[in-house]
Amino acid sequence: MALKQISSNKCFGGLQKVFEHESVELKCKMKFAVYLPPKAETGKCPALYWLSGLTCTEQNFISKSGYHQAASEHGLVVIVPDTSPRECHIKGEDDSWDFGTGAGFYVNATEDPWKTNYRMYSYVTEELPQLINANFPVDPQRMSIFGHSMGGHGALICALKNPGKYKSVSAFAPICNPVLCPWGKKAFTGYLGTDESKWKTYDATHLVTSYPGSQLDILIDQGKDDQFLSDGQLLPDNFIAACTEKKIPVVFRLQEGYDHSYYFIATFIADHIRHHAKYLNA
Amino acid sequence: MEEVVEEEPRLDRSPAPEDFHFYHMDLYDCEDTLQSFPEGNTRLRRETVQAEGGPGQAGEGQAQRDLQEVNEFIHLYGLEDDHELGDEFLDEDRMGRSAYPPYGLKRREPAREQRDWRLGEEDEAEDQGYAGWGMAGQSQALQEAYRYTHGRASEEYECYVIPEEEDEEEAADVFCVTCRTPIRGVEKDIDEHKEHEVTPLNKALESAKDEIHKNMYKLEQQIIEMENFASHLEEVFITVEENFGRQEQNFESHYNEILETLAQKYEEKIQALGEKKKEKLEALYGQLVSCGENLNTCKELMETIEEICHEEKVDFLKDAVAMTDRLGKFLKTKTDVEISAQPHFEDQTLDFSDVEQLMGSMNTIPAPSAPVINPQAPNSATGSSVRVCWSLYSDDTVESYWLSYRPVQDSPPGKDQEEFTVTVKETYCSVTNLEPNTQYEFWVIAKNRAGPSPSSEHAVYMTAPSPPVIKTEAIRSCEEAVLICWESGNLNPVDSYTVELTQVEMPATSGVTESVVGIPTCESLIQLQPGQSYTICVRALNVGGPSARSEPATVCTTGSYFPLNKATCHPWLNISEDGFMVIRSERKSLTREPLPSQTQFTRCVAVMGNLIPVRGRHYWEVEVDECLDYTVGVAFEDVPKQEDLGANGLSWCMKHTFAASRHKYEFLHNRTTPDIRITVPPKKIGILLDYENSKLSFFNVDIAQHLYTFSCQLHRFVHPCFSLEKPGYLKICNGISMPMHATFY
């Protein structure tokens, strides 16, 4: 479990670092980014996990979203894992951008040949938090999760599958109902097989219906001019309907004129970090 | 020489310029200066002689030391080497010139002493002294050298110079306490000072100075005292003159009165006496006349009888009988021989009682002069009483005063106000049972048994106002301040108001009262500490003083507290009795939509709250029904009342519409809203108005969920607004401290 520091840059008084380690869960070398706010020098800080979208590495978020200032001010350690196992030499892993490398979908694969390495769900909910808790000044009791697109889906399912584990959750343009969208169908078929009942255990809209009702405040921002919204990949309305039905608090903000890009994320990142800080620093 | 010259301007007065003169003198032969020297020198010498007791001792030891000093001096200024100096001594010309310096240098010594005396700057003085000595020493050494090398010629010169020198060389450096004289240090072990107590001269100097300063101080004190005493005497002098003058007048008037009374009495007596005399004389005269008549009758009778006696017997008898009858008759009439009036007059006692009374009153008092009524003392009045004070002249004896008063009224001058008079013994009176905040005219008359004084001037006193009445229902507050309004409670205007604040705390620390004074109007915005409870009272003030406290009002600086502005209320809305429930009943078909108005909402069925005009953060909550159509938010006071809330740039609000079992939430400003979906309909909406960050945020209170935040430029103050689009009610919750989660927005 040795950590290898790849880079370290001072940013808003804190340090943006990238590490590499040998993942037990994924059986490959994984990189992840950690931002340590100035407050982390003197005490333990809450941990906020960011899950990126399709094709991303740990680099996209830390270089494009401009989250550092807000994280520095609120004193949050932000952890950004990669989006899939890397260089596992599985046949077809690099064939398409929405499956395999860069498209782990935060599930534990059950199908061959993926099931050995593609265990991103366990990685982001178990292995990585343990690694972080052991090596960085974070308070294990205070963690939250958020993400974008596929990572938004990941954040939602992590929170909904583990009531109480995360203090809060938020998402930018999440894939809300993967069972019903082309991306989800492709990925779940590949990783989980054809049994759709297994799919539902990784579907936020379905998970809501069985969520036991522990307090969870969900903030979702969605660009109105997001092409994947109109393509039916994200399906937020299904999720909102389910939450309304189950009285799970969601504020869903359809942002006029924004698309799916990191420009959109950068615009509202401060709102999201504040949303988490409200629960993490309460 | 530089050092010396530099120092010189700092010396006192004349010596410095004279030093310069010295050098000039040699060149220009200034006679004036020359003449001034002997005088100065003799004086100096005398002083030195006195100081040292004997000049003889000074000579050799001093010379030795001086020689050494001269060398040092020369070294110091790098003039010449020793042997060079020796050569120089041979130069007669130079000798003649350099022999002079002692005059000038000596002249400086008294100056130094004088300065020492005044300033006590010992260090400087010593430096200066050293320089002086140096110069003196040099000259003496030169002379000695001269004497040594030359013969007689120089001795003439020496005769001229030396005596001055030697005397003045010897300065005392210690002070013999026993002999009270300064002596030189070397002397202290010899002669008469051997057994004596000695102190350093400077110390002696100091103590002598102190002594003199003390004495001067005492003298000054005494002068002041004497001056005071003299002025006091003058005062007494004047007072005596006045008093006696007054008494003289008093006596004069009294004695005149007595003399007049006596003269009057004399007149009366004389007149009465004359009348009595006349009466008596008249009575006596009457008696005399009647007496004469009787006598004539008697004579006549005698004659008749004699005639009868000479008649015939028959005739005689006949006549005698008749005569006898007549005689008998005559004799029967009694002759009055009593004197009707006594020659002496009845003993009349003179009545001097009134004179005696006048005499008696002479040594007692005159009627008092008019008292002087004081103007009203500040804070001496209450709402129903004033304390009137006056004074009398110190010589007057007064038994009592009549204090009269009546209310001052501008309106009917002809109509006399009722006057009241009280009798008091003191020179003050608390007059009670008066009307509050009213002017009364007072005047006072002193009296004693000699009579009443003239009336004093009339003075106007004013009763304190009635206590104001706090409009408790209009109190607005926030965490930092309270805006409090009150009714004056007085018909006439008052000068100002005072607000008194008492922090309601634990009983142990209570009782601290802050006051805000000089408030000209019937409202005040007062800064407070957050999270506290205050009891607030108001007093009204006029020249007479403060009123009693108003009934207290309680203010809590937890959250913001605002009443609803009923003037803005749409007629279809009702406000509950406690003022915090806004109710829209089922449509009353009778009430039509009202006409457009500036203050009253006429289109949207809304009411506005009166938020305290304080920038900062304000938080309040509204309880709503999930299925109710409502709008809550803020607006400027002048928001168009015939428009919906949020339909313009002057209002910001959250609007809920419930239709087809769907909740629609809009955050409206200028008719636009972001597209926001909320999955859990709030039952209680928290509203945070933050002037500092120009933000207005809405929350679902129960789940601490942030709903939306407006960024709004609030260049003026806004007020909360509440609107009901369908029958139902809203409950406004005030005085709530801002929840933790709201602090993140």
UniProtKB/TrEMBL annotation, chain A:
Pfam entry (one): Esterase
Tell me where it resides.
Cytoplasm
Does the UniProt entry include the keyword Disulfide bond?
A: no
User: Which keywords label this protein?
Assistant: Cytoplasm, Hydrolase, Serine esterase
* Gene Ontology CC annotations of this record: cytosol
What chemistry does it catalyse, as a reaction equation?
S-formylglutathione + H2O = formate + glutathione + H(+)
Molecular function via GO? carboxylic ester hydrolase activity; S-formylglutathione hydrolase activity
Gene3D superfamilies assigned to the protein according to its UniProt record, in alphabetical order: alpha/beta hydrolase
| Residues at the active site | 149 (charge relay system), 226 (charge relay system), 260 (charge relay system)
Q: Please state which protein family the record places this protein in.
A: Belongs to the esterase D family.
User: What biological function has been recorded for the protein in this entry?
Assistant: Serine hydrolase involved in the detoxification of formaldehyde.
What name goes with this protein? S-formylglutathione hydrolase
Gene that this polypeptide is encoded by: ESD
Automatic annotation (TrEMBL), chain B:
Entry annotated with the keyword Coiled coil: yes
In this chain, composition skew of type Basic and acidic residues spans 106-120
Q: Which residues form the Fibronectin type-III domain?
A: 371-466, 467-560
One Pfam family, short name = SPRY
**Which residue windows are transmembrane per the record?**
none
InterPro entries hit by this protein:
B30.2/SPRY (IPR001870), B30.2/SPRY_sf (IPR043136), Butyrophylin_SPRY (IPR003879), ConA-like_dom_sf (IPR013320), E3_ligase_FN3/SPRY (IPR050617), FN3_dom (IPR003961), FN3_sf (IPR036116), Ig-like_fold (IPR013783)
**Region (Disordered) spans which residues?**
100-124
Q: Which residues form a coiled coil?
A: 256-283
Q: Which UniProt keywords apply?
A: Coiled coil
Q: Which residues form the B30.2/SPRY domain?
A: 542-739
Indicate what this protein is called per its UniProt record: Fibronectin type III and SPRY domain-containing protein 2
The organism encoding this protein is Heterocephalus glaber
Q: Which gene encodes it?
A: FSD2
